[in-house]
Amino acid sequence: MELRQLRYFVVLAEELHFRRAAERLFISTPTLSQQIKVLERELGGPLLIRAPRVELTPAGAVLLRSGKTVLRAMDEAVRQTRRAAVSGAPVLRLGLLNGVPPWLPTRIGSLLTAALPGARMVLTGGTTADQVRFLDDDEVDLALVRTPVDLPERFAQRAVAREELGVLMSQRHPLAGEALLDPVELSGQELILFARESAAGLHDALLRALADHGARVRLSASAMGHAQMLAVLPARPDVIGLSSSRADGLPGLVWRPLRGAPLVVTYAVAWRAAVRDPAVAALIAALTADLSAE
To answer: Where do the domains of the chain lie, and which CATH numbers do they carry?
Structure first.
């Protein structure tokens, strides 16, 4: 049994509803269902009655009680170990968003050093959905996310940076010769986008913005992260992707802005509103105040 699977089960047992539990965990419902089945196979029997409504079996009730104890103990062990490892030195555990502008974590590190000399930063990478889970599990103090993102009320967030998105494509794409693209020219084009479950709010917002400006794209069945897209697009002149101008000039690729309909991605820092550590609270205040002034 993995701790991740145990955490999934505990949340599902609390919600007794697959969709609500999946939303709380920031994973898809099929992923949650599959992981619970794996757990049941591992433990040798059903933990849930799934119809007509979700209920715990006697074995599931036992695992819920024990599982909560295990998770609490693990979280406390992690916190105590981290405190001991840094010998009292202030630490900011930063959730580093995949594909974030390189200057942003560098700036956060500089602000951290200025606010608390001797402090250090520990980084944990992942998608927006990953970062929200890290915050909820107290694995990071501050996380970078892409908005819009639906955060629980126990979290706070503040925008810190923005980037314009344009169309990224193979140099051999029929539209590659144009310096500026009209959104309607994208109609019918196959668009490779990241998996919705990694940042549902941004995924939906981008498709909606494209449609509102006349770009009736076809969402590709292939979903992938930005790094994978950079590797795929040069050999696929029949598809397009979205990217900031940071990708402009990469081998085999061209980047083109959209006429009259710039797509903007906003980066935000998010944190648990009830911060227990005074040092972390002071750091968050200094970091968010400075970055929000950009």
So the answer is: 3-84 (1.10.10.10), 88-159+267-291 (3.40.190.10), 161-264 (3.40.190.10)
β-strand partners of 162? 266
Q: Which residue from 243, 267, 257, 253 is spatially nearest to 157, judged by alpha carbons?
A: 267
Could you tell me the pLDDT band of residue 294, with boundaries at 50, 70 and 90? low
Token pair 């029949």 is at which residue?
A: 238
Residue 82 has pLDDT above 70, yes or no: no
Full-model pTM: 0.70
Provide the pLDDT for residue 137: 87
